[in-house]
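Mods, move this if it's the wrong board.
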Amino acid sequence: MQDTPNQVHRLAPQRRNKIHRQIKRSGLDSMLVTDEKNVTYLTGFTGDSSYLWLTSDQAVLLSDSRYTTQISEECPDLETMIRDAGSTTCDLAAKIAKTCNAKTIGIEPTSVTKSLYDRINSATASELVDTDSWVETLRAIKDKHEISTIRRSIRIAEQAFSVIRAQMTVDQTERQIAHNLEHQIRAFGGSGCSFEPIVGIGPRAALPHGIPSNRRIGQDPFVLIDWGAQYNGYASDLTRVLVTAKIPPKLRKIHEIVLKAQLAAIAKIRPGVCLQRVDKAARSLIERAGFGKQFGHGLGHGFGLRIHESPFLSPIYEGQLAAGMVVTIEPGIYVPGWGGVRIEDDVLVTKEGCEVLSSLPKSLDECVVGM
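Not the wrong board. Structure tokens:
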């Protein structure tokens, strides 16, 4: 069941209040939120091409007339400035900055375009201050509503996967499996895939982000599938390897290493643990098994409104886990010319430790498909 607009927007004022207080503490006059996902998080508005102007006690959504009705439904209590066809959202941002006589404006450097930066600069004498990751830091800790929505997204992804597994035939191609996943996700109530599904049969499983091709299930004994569902704006992200013939000894060996690495990492997850320590728990096990060079990506990442968001678990990202974070744990080994194994689950950091939110079988014998 999809959320009603009222269920979504009632949480937004609490989120904005945290940014209002941060603006006040920092001594800024205002902040311009330009990242579309951050605008959604702070307002409940799900349209695009819109900004949010914030001060220590005011919030104004800057948008255009295409969204007048949608805004009234999704965030009816929010003050708005609506542009017409003769102006741009950049013009609105410059106008409100000038009208408010803002001396200092916080901006999101990863989403502010040069044209917007120049437009504000030319219209005001404001100092533009980097507020990078202010909202993303809030988004990293999911509230009860977000966790509930993510749980539903995961269930939809798992239901869709169970159907495509049951329907798998030797003649199916990687592309057909990917398309079927999208169809089943929508059939179970999702709005679509949270990213383009990755389907790799045999040697093509060695491509961590391979694009589905016309290779057929019957050509090799196993297939790697990485997929997720989108539900009410929130993503999920899972990976399993399915065996479609007799289990090759090399696949069993590598799968066992990857599974042990994943379980070792999950065992480390609890509030206060360094991100790098969780990554190391899996990476060191894979390195000791002689496959360190075949595991070239980070162990996992946060997800929510985006499929990749803070925190990131890797050898280079600093920081600690906190209760309310939801992360993927996805070690992998990729051998060019042979194939690859990745096992991925979605994990919630709890006050006491963690909860694995995904529930699909992952031991290799449980992943054999009878065809």
